[in-house]
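Allow me, if you will, to draw on your knowledge of protein folds for a short while. I have a record of one protein: its chain in single-letter code and its fold written as discrete structure tokens. I remain grateful for any guidance, and I place the record below:
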Amino acid sequence: MLKYNKRFTAIIVFVLALGVLQPATAMAATSPTLGAAGSYSVLGHTTVTNTGPTTMPGDLGISSGGAPTGFPPGVVGPPGTIRNAGDSLIAQNANTAAFGALDQGCDTTYAGTKDLVGSNLVAGVYCADAFELSGTLTLSGTGVWIFKSASTLITSGTANVVGGDPCNVWWRQVSSATLGTTTQLTGNVLSLTSNTIQNGASLNGRALAQTGAVTLDSNIITGSECLSAPIFSGTSTKVGLPNTGVATTTTSQQIIASIVLFVSIFALYLVRKIRKLS
């Protein structure tokens, strides 16, 4: 009888554990919290240079110090402004944290370099040695899209993105991103090294570079709905539309932790109950 009870207890614990672990492995891609970088449209480390009438709604800054060149004729804001090195260094630290948070498990992995032209993708994490885009990429449904490149992102030709929420589309490059002439890209471009946005290209999102430069040339950068108010003003109130791409990871983790705790307590109760019966 005791042997039977031990087996029965083990089965119960195993089944309950499966019920807890399965949802955790099916976690959807989540947007990182940008913190101090949330008010920025463009952030570089070494330099930010511009040619022509580039426009952007959010903040602009260089985390190593110095003033960006080409403003004017480039225009920053409103509501954004050109930030000093101190503010931009704080934003750069937040950008670094967001870059790390984007390193999530891959739902789909492509071998080598992947040109996303013609793809129709639902939300998820997509990984490749490098990404290219030479035409139309369609993002279907709702959720978060993360494109993780082990090296570069290069767009060319008629590169454009249809669908998707610019606040929840992320391009993460371990090296650099180059948006070719006439590109129309959607999303947040976070590169470990540098970002180059060539003549006439547009970006509905933001361009953040950790260790290198951002180069602009007569570009239209939009995405005001994804900007947060600068923390440097002493407030974290969001501006624009409600969807700011802030992750729900913390809430999900709290729910899972609560479930794990409940199941653990319930399993312990069952074990004690069975022991008394034996």
